[in-house]
Amino acid sequence: MKFVVTGAAGFIGSHLAERLSAQGHDVAGIDSFTDYYDVALKEENARGLDVQRLDLAVEDLELDGVHGVFHLAGQPGVRSFGDVFDEYVNRNLVASRRVFERAARAGVRVVFASSSSIYGDAERYPTPEDTEPRPISPYGITKLGCEQLARAYAQGFGLEAIVLRYFTVYGPRQRPDMAVARIVDALARGAPFELYGDGSQSRSFTYVADAVDGAIAAMERAPAGAVYNVGGGAEATMREAIDALERISGRTLELLERPVAKGDVRRTAADTTAIARDVGWRATTPLDDGLQAQWEWAANRVAAS
């Protein structure tokens, strides 16, 4: 089968494209290689993959002969206030609208990567999918808007779309602005780490291989219109994650405490009952195992530099 993976030079997208290729599928990768973080890292992620440079906000997606689209492209990061908001609108809302429109016209199924950020500070934990969305960052607002666009194109034009709300995906190649990536880099380099908040904020950490499994299972077995949480099997605080990485690395992290970042939530905890019931997916990677893999990847990169 032929699949399109948008955001194929990114963190999750590159892992997904590799997995699909390893399964024998024809994979067409799409990425605009934005400068949100070092483009060289994206080029490294894309090495060995078929990735076309394409700006989905202005250029058309070619879907002839395509079985399905994994739409992971977008502008990430909850620190999305201020002048950068236009980039979130363009790279999330505008680009996704064009992808959904093209897919609806071609009769191609789409798995869309949304985010737990659409919940904001949820009132229910673990958080099920029917929780009222209350995003507290422009990023979360645009991701919720993309979900609503998918629903509108499904109702108006027959788009077959599945929405996956990812919860704090980590692992090798994680974006360098994300907390676990910054922690392992600081440990590997012997540098201080800026901790936003007191470290008691908790996350439903999801290992990248599990996130990829969820996306493929949804493409294969999820009913059209489904919305699923994709989250790790265990919740941990930032302090607990730091303690685990210190134990794994055998090093001590120098912490510089900073105020809580605007748009950051106190807690995320995924209720994954629905995706387990419908498609048989659940996270299987223990946090310590996933952190071990990310530490080894980061430490090897620092040693080689």
Q: How are the SSEs ordered, and which strands pair?
A:
Layout: E1 2-6, H1 11-22, E2 26-31, H2 39-46, E3 51-53, E4 68-71, H3 85-106, E5 109-115, H4 138-157, E6 161-166, E7 169-170, H5 179-189, E8 193-196, E9 202-203, E10 206-207, H6 208-221, E11 227-230, E12 236-237, H7 238-249, E13 255-258, H8 273-279, H9 287-304
Parallel strand pairs: 1-2, 1-4, 2-3, 4-5, 5-6, 6-11, 7-10, 8-13
Antiparallel strand pairs: 9-12
Characterise the protein shown here:
- With about 300 residues, this protein is α/β, with parallel strands linked by helices.
- It has a single domain, classed as Rossmann fold (3-Layer(aba) Sandwich).
- About 40% of the residues lie in helices and about 15% in strands.
- It is built from nine helices and 13 strands.
- It has helices at about 10-20, 40-45, 85-105, 140-155, 180-190, 210-220, 240-250, 275-280, 285-305; strands at about 1-5, 25-30, 50-55, 70, 110-115, 160-165, 170, 195, 200-205, 205, 225-230, 235, 255-260.
- A seven-stranded parallel β-sheet has the order 3-2-1-4-5-6-11, sandwiched between helices.
Structure characteristics:
single chain; 305 residues; alpha/beta; Rossmann fold; 41% helix; globular
Concise summary:
With 305 residues, this protein is an alpha/beta fold. The chain has helices at residues 11-22, 39-46, 85-106, 138-157, 179-189, 208-221, 238-249, 273-279, 287-304, and strands spanning 2-6, 26-31, 51-53, 68-71, 109-115, 161-166, 169-170, 193-196, 202-203, 206-207, 227-230, 236-237, 255-258. The chain is 41% helix and 17% strand.
